[in-house]
């Protein structure tokens, strides 16, 4: 448009003089606050500069100011120059006739102490407003101010004012003043930049000036929902009659998800879309895979709107299928493979799904729940088929997803969500958080819920990189290093997962790559804020939100490191654009600020209701006379004086556990269905760390008894693990109120019902001890015995995932999710691990890692006879072959070897057969170190070279350890004789070791390795022994580990942090791996790694001594 016409139109708008007065006052206030010295001002689309000239004319600091006013309207510039000269400000104010949209024209004028955006924001497309505000860190000094104004009527002004405020907040601007003196005039605000000034990108185009006439002429109609939106009353965000939602690009909710995704594919075709996992496709590759699947699905028949269930792993192929199903015009229903089959079958039945799409890992389960193999589709990401977009018309109102949540009737309920609602939810997140195409966003939550879906689309519909992390399989173990490796910038999780993640971090560990942390569900506290401040970067922002599957995200509250929050819960912020929050009492009346009321949501962008459940839909949803939808959340909240919302919990029988919404009545029904149960009540309590813990109070049928372990296993077969209570309390009757109702407040706490504590039975071997340590670490408990039940100790489903992840790390054994359910005590889980911890082999030599690079490393078994102790250590070493020497007899196949020389004699041929020439690399821990020492002696005697003999916390015999001399001289030999006689007789009569006897026999083998170690008398070794010793000082009878140096020509000692008991688990194993790798690199220079460069010499004590013969 012609700029002369714009200025003429602009001057005719009402309230101009009021706006001008306020802007001048804000300029004067900014000048007053500036420290002594020069003050730099920049004005974009400055016109005649009447705001700057008027503010400076009589201000005491006018001489300190250098102002650059840029505009390309010559007449306005001429008027401005004349006014400045008349006011005596021609030296202070410089008018530049140039294109205000180009960053290059501000070179030398920025960064400034004050930036003015006056009168033109309403003439830009909404995405250009966002682009301009995200560029302002190049224009502002730290603590510099921006003064902006926006008309409240033109071009959806009220809604856009709310969006602009959120955009400034997400770009690190603190709001200092905000005024709307005339409801039909301007909003005027002043904000201060709290971030770090960025370098000017001279190539950047800041915005495109469109003009109000073109904006009005090109506004897209919204045939179904715009009318409803126009009938919404004015709310906190300024949405009013006549205002439809923004229509350009992402701001256009009147399109479909595939339409928006297509724009991203065109813009970022070669850019990575999924940034983690085995398959990391670009946007173009992801689109091709989705299109191929969409065509394959369409070829099977069916109709638009058919429900398609997805049972797949949490990675890129699942996302390709989600997109393909939507492109085919079908409705996505994502299932969790960790849910019980009965639960999955209920969802399948309720959704009336036509097909189940799965991957090889979940194919068997998919066939099991479908009972019809022909209805199961196995996805192939590189399959053949058409790659063009399917010719399917998709309307914004069409259903895209069913999100299944816990139902009060015991049946899961499907929340319906349309394309329009999802797009608007993404828009709210994008503007509220300030998301960018450059972001890498972690996906922790399952796509079966609103959090996972929202996170996925926030990434893909903004051209960002989505990074799935399999939290359901791995918990939070290793998440910190994974975030760094994947350069994640946006961290989204439930509060529960965040707390587990924080517990996994080291005291001083920092998450430096993340710039945004968003809590997606549950209430956060000052403790969570303190954790964020402690572990995240200084420029990282924290956002709290209030959301639900029915509504998407409704509010945002931004927190920065400098905020002062010491106690209490965190606010969840103000409603976002297009959302109105009401707080009602029991009679449906609005409550006053500070009072509690039920949170009611009014918007055109919330769920249509529940799938095939008209009664529940009618109970929770309604339509206002103006056409907007109302949703009763069932949550309580209160409004603070600043308009922000405080979430106060549930008003009914529904809670959130580990980020999942749970109906307590569903759990009660599941318990009551057990034959021995008469009735049950489930109570949710908030623990001191603000996590939710469930306790079940049960009355049994007369004369019946109930085994808690059996009850827990049954429940896990019908409801998800996170819904199984941590405690079961059996009562004769429930306490009642005077009115005859159950008095839940009078129910005893779990601790009050406990009988006298049973004695703690100590773990008997290394497997049980390691399992107990894992339980203690995850649960935050101590002194856990071998018969203690993980779930009775308060373990949750989320923590069970962490236990399994830790087991895989320590034992190198991957267990299914059901393993801990069926083996929930230390003893039972250790027995299961013992079966898997021993590597099946007909020979002592077992391969721990295959490689064709470098000399092989041979590691001798620990005192327990197995080599799984080395699992995590081996994975941290470089790519050389590693072999373990497993004790004879650990598989129950034969009689154990009773001396160290006998072991060396048996193992030496195995080593020579694998590596006939050497040089040899040997290592061992515990008594395995002595066997490695004997092997080195024999190889040396044969004239072979031993390049490395590494003994890791190996005591030198005669070993006294924690036993008294009485034990060594009398008790131990007597016990050994008894064991030998017992198992010797069993062997003589030809009895085989049964599966049930095997754990006991392995303890016998371990005992005999101890006998062999105590009897061993080392000879002299004409070589170097490398001792890797922890700085452990707890040796009642003295530290015997260094004594082996008396029997070697040279001894090299490397001192490590930590204690012996934790040498092969984190964090001690990290340093052990570094130092052992350093030794390996020196011994075998052919295979160097970067690990050598990471060793810090000043942190590790290394000494070398020679033996005196």
What does this 3D model show about the protein?
- The chain is α/β, with parallel strands linked by helices and 1109 residues long.
- It folds into 6 domains: 3-218, Rossmann fold; 256-266 and 275-417, 3-Layer(aba) Sandwich (Rossmann fold), CATH 3.40.50; 580-650, Luciferase, Domain 3 (Luciferase, domain 3), CATH 2.30.38; 654-753, GMP Synthetase, Chain A, domain 3; 766-837, Non-ribosomal Peptide Synthetase Peptidyl Carrier Protein, Chain A (Orthogonal Bundle); 845-1106, Alpha/Beta hydrolase fold, catalytic domain (Rossmann fold, 3-Layer(aba) Sandwich).
- Helices cover 33% and strands 20% of the residues.
- The chain has an 8-stranded mixed sheet with strand order 33-35-34-36-37-38-39-40, sandwiched between helices.
- The longest helix is centred in the last third of the chain and has 24 residues, at 965-988.
- It is globular.
Describe the SSE topology.
Elements: H1 3-11, H2 16-33, E1 39-44, H3 50-56, E2 65-71, H4 74-86, E3 93-97, E4 112-117, H5 126-135, E5 140-151, H6 157-170, E6 173-179, E7 186-193, H7 212-218, H8 226-230, H9 257-267, H10 283-298, E8 307-311, H11 316-327, E9 331-334, H12 341-351, E10 355-358, H13 363-370, E11 376-378, E12 399-405, E13 413-418, H14 419-433, E14 440-443, H15 450-460, E15 465-468, H16 471-474, H17 479-485, E16 490-493, H18 495-504, E17 516-519, H19 526-535, E18 541-544, E19 547-548, E20 552-553, E21 555-559, E22 574-575, E23 580-584, E24 597-603, H20 614-620, E25 621-623, E26 629-639, E27 645-650, E28 654-657, E29 660-663, H21 664-672, E30 677-686, E31 692-700, H22 708-716, E32 727-730, H23 766-779, H24 797-811, H25 818-822, H26 826-837, E33 845-849, E34 857-860, H27 871-876, E35 882-885, H28 900-914, E36 920-925, H29 928-941, E37 946-952, H30 965-988, H31 998-1015, E38 1021-1030, E39 1048-1056, H32 1068-1083, H33 1091-1094, E40 1101-1106
Parallel strand pairs: 1-2, 1-4, 2-3, 4-5, 8-9, 8-10, 10-11, 14-15, 16-17, 17-18, 31-32, 34-35, 34-36, 36-37, 37-38, 38-39
Antiparallel strand pairs: 5-7, 6-7, 12-13, 18-21, 19-20, 21-22, 23-24, 24-26, 25-26, 26-27, 28-29, 30-31, 33-35, 39-40
